[in-house]
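Crash report, auto-generated. Payload:
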Amino acid sequence: MSLLAVDDLSVSIGMVPLLDRVSFSLDRGEVLGLVGESGSGKSLTAMTLMGLLPLIGGRITAGRVRFDGIDLTTLPEPAYRDLRGQRIALISQNPMTSLDPILTVGAQIDQASRLHAGLSAAAARARSLDLMHQLRIPEAVAIHGQYPHQLSGGMKQRIVIAMALAGDPDLIIADEPTTALDVTIQAQIIQILCDLVAERGLALLLITHDMGVVAQACHRVSVLYAGRGAETGPVHDIFARPRHPYTKALIGCIPREGQAPGTLVGIPGMVPTAFAYPKGCRYHPRCTAAAPDCRTEVPAGSIQGVGGSIVFCHHPLEVGHV
Amino acid sequence: MSDPMSAPILRFDGVSRDFSAQNGFFGRKRTMRAVDGVTLDIPRGKVTGVVGESGCGKSTLARLALHLLKPSIGHVYFEGNDLAGLKPAALRRQRRHMQMVFQDPYSSINPRFSIRDAVMEPFQVHGIRHTPAEGKERAARLLEMAGLDPQLAEHYPHQLSGGQKQRVGIARALALEPNLIVLDEPTASLDVSIQAQIIALLADLKSRLGLTYLFISHDLGLVRYFCDRIVVMYLGAAVEILPSTDAPHRHPYTRTLMESAFLPDPERRRAVTRLTGEIPSAFERPPGCAFATRCSFASGRCYAEKPVLLTTGRHAVACHHPLD
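Recovered output after restart:
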């Protein structure tokens, strides 16, 4: 059984339905990429998994989320508190806002260890330094005593990762962890995360809009569009044989080496807002292959190919049609 | 005199720019050099890309190009005129021909301006008057050029998406029919699908209007796709100028940048080389090569002696041990 299994999850904020029957699963030692444009529901999925929906007035309206056999959809808040930070950790996009500016970064990692692992002050400090070494933070002792503003963006993100690891979690949800960082630093951070998955058997849900990061780091991919699943499958299969026109278009937005001028066109139009979701397949107004049934019928998921990709499309692209 | 069409539209001649910062109110005043001795020609009708990481001075270079910042040392020539030597009225006349598109379309448009007011603002600044009917027509044409529905003229910025706002930024930059547009990370805050749309629009406008672009970006993949030549900056200095996007790179820093850019192809994953060492502070510039602290080829000479930018053919590199 998977460590994390999300089945037909639907989420509303107020009266507005935002996620509609989203499904994916994630195992230990695996990196799942959750991709899509802004407004596809990626970050909302992260909030849901962290049990933070009440903070934004959201609620689960249907479906189930199971984490290591625990049903998260009905879990009361006190029990959720024991999971959060200790078994499920979140790394957010902006390291500048996840750190307290008036505490040293060391104190913040110590705090996470003391809170989640119940360590004494001395043991927590030793553990923080150990984590900082593992994340290849140079001069860990000196940096332990520094404040966030004294550190570079890449270093701050490493501190946030150290905090996430302090509770020794089974699952890390990383919401655009490298979007605010330079490419050389992004490459380092992604490498560190992948190493952690391989060495510690963590499960990593990597939320990103960058298909380059997905291709580099993920084992499997789940593509979301306007709050619904579009395509889920193994990364090699998805990139070599995208079957959903949206997946193909999204991959085509990244310039390749030696790409001829004028061939990068993007996807016309934009993601609709939740108030104006079109009928049928929500991608049909932007889709080059839209047919009459796409305008009226919501496509159901179908299993395609040997890799077992699940595709939500009435007219999936033929294999070899790349 | 040489053919004016082959002369560069913009020239940086030994340009440096310093900023000073103070440690507290009574603290010591410290000076950092954001741009350090850049000499660079921007050829007409081409896209010159400038890449580098945060703090490498690329945005400062963009502002120096339009004389929004004055150089501390050196000169910037636009169409052969030293911008620092111009009187305010003459500088304003030159500015008509050079425009900028900013990174953040959310903060570069006044939220209290309608889209029409935003697009027409450059005319106001330059004292060009229109009758209301002419103004409407002009704004509609500019919005259409940027791929927007002219009906949006009546809307306000908060009603537009990020991509639409960036198109407004482009429409406004086009208003005065400039020759040179400086694009400072114009797609960095947009989704990849919208980024590709904007790049396609910029490419189309360039060929239709014969524009010259100075394209500032941290995205090497995008720069390689869109630009004709690439300037790589590190800690304020140009360390390599690639004459074409497929020219083999020779500076170890350029190689590091290239290897850090992930390809959208899981069959070609990057072996990420571990960078050791931090970027030196621009306040305490090392005497030798600024990249030496992170470079695997660094020798004693690199720490002692600053490499100069040497040009072979049209390719320039500043390195004691360039790659073959």
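Post-recovery validation: The domain at 10-97+178-317 of chain B is CATH 3.40.50.300 (Rossmann fold).
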